[in-house]
Amino acid sequence: MDYDAIVVGGGPAGCFTAAGIARSCFSVLVVEEHKNIGEPVQCAGLISPRTMALASAPKDLILKEYSSSRIISSLGSQLSITGEKVYAQAVDRASFDRHLADQARKAGAEIITDARVTGLTRIPAGFRVNINTGRKQLNLTCRLLIGADGVKSRVAKWLGLPPAESRVNMYAGDIELNSLNPDEVLIFLGQSIAPGWFGWVIPLTERLARVGVGSLFSNRSPRYYFKNMADHFPSIFQGYREIRYTGGSVPFGPMRKIYSSHALLVGDAASQVKPMSGGGIYTGLRGANLCSMVACEALKRDHLSDNFLSEYQMLWESEFRSEFQSSIKHREVYGNMRDRDLDNLLRFLNRPRWRKLIARYGDIDYPSWLARHLFSAGPWLQRFAFAALDIFESRERLKSRIEA
After folding, report:
1. Structural domain boundaries in the chain
2. What's the rounded Cα separation, in Å, for the pair 6 and 142?
């Protein structure tokens, strides 16, 4: 074989996986379709301090740290939360990705850029991978193939592994605003603004911010919702100027099969994305840890069967199944709440007791920790949650009867 492992995709999850495998002295090749690692940027780059620690990323990649956020409903109610710790950090995402690529190279992995995988062929001991570099065609063999090629993973399709149940389409970019609190992240809620999802403003300076909006239950273009959000909050967006557009989409839905004989999926390709926020860097890196661990053991023993590699799926689900199931259920409840319900909910939570609880248990990587505590907020909050859940379950029962 030319390589022990070929990783398709040079994003954070792909490079982190490659580094883990290469450190065990296996030969690894990373194939990245873009010319430069980290570009184009398609992420808001808002991560937790634990993510920075997991990636061993230098502090000079941090552009801004946040301890405060303000949640605003489409009907005007607001909930401001200020804590005593740093909850999130905005990072230079392109440099963050290059840092992980450098780690992979130092571990011994090879990385080729501006190269596209055009086809796969199963062979008795692994795969033959066809790669177009623009200058020449490469036909390389490997014992283990790892798909880290994003939400529209071609590797997953070639392997016949199931795609994500749905995708959240997003419009995002760097926006210049005239009035901005540089220390406060803004979150916008409302089905009329972002159906099933939310909008955000992540300030970097007093004028520059990363702004975006996503939609889960609509066929309208993401840009439509961005313009609608800007029009809806003129005090924030009046006179805004778009500097750079990123956009993109993230997978959404329950966990799915992420392994096959001689092959594994990781990162967005494996739907390793937080269902509440769509963030995938922390979960993708944790998935990469587990992926590389199982990969090294499989390569060492030369056991690359479907059955042996299923250990990766079991480890991933053991760590995140409970968190993802909770987040998906809360996302479904949220998706069935009307704008008036959401507005009333923010007004209800805008009390010292609940603001303190949110500040204490809020965690962007593990939102279920806060959700469990908020659900104990009393009959008033539970009434809205159960009402939304009843609507969802009624729709599912109706859908089942129609399909039957």
Report:
1. 3-44+93-164+254-327, 166-251, 332-396
2. 6
Answer whether 180's CB lies under 8 Å from 207's CB.
yes
- Sign for the pseudo-dihedral over CA of 220, 223, 226, 231: negative
Return d(Cα 365, Cα 342) in angstroms, integer. 23
Distance of CA 78 to the CA centre of its chain: 26
The DSSP secondary structure of 180-194, one letter per residue, reads --TTEEEEEE-TTTS
pLDDT at 391: 46
Model pTM?
A: 0.91
Residue 128 Rama label (left phi>0; alpha psi -120 to 50; beta): beta
Nearest Cα neighbor of 310 from 287, 322, 293, 294 is: 294
Name the residue with higher pLDDT: 280 or 399. 280
**Which contiguous run of DSSP H or E holds residue 121?**
strand 116-123
The alpha carbon of 107 is separated from its chain's Cα centroid by a whole number of angstroms, namely 26
The answer to whether residue 233 scores a pLDDT higher than 90 is yes
Residue 12's CB is within 10 A of a number of other CB atoms, namely: 30
Q: Which residues contact 234 (CB under 8 A, 6 or more apart)?
A: none
Residue 386 has a pLDDT of 53
Q: Which CATH number fits domain 3-44+93-164+254-327: 3.50.50.60, 3.20.130.10, 3.30.450.40, 2.40.50.100?
A: 3.50.50.60
| Region at 247 (left for phi over 0; alpha for psi -120 to 50; beta for the rest) | left
Examine the pLDDT at 247 and tell me if it is beyond 80: no
pLDDT at 381: 55
- Name residues whose C-beta falls within 8 Å of residue 112's C-beta, 6 or more positions apart in sequence: 29, 30, 31, 32, 131, 133
| CATH code matching the domain that covers 166-251, chosen among 3.40.50.1260, 3.40.718.10, 3.30.9.10, 3.40.50.1100 | 3.30.9.10
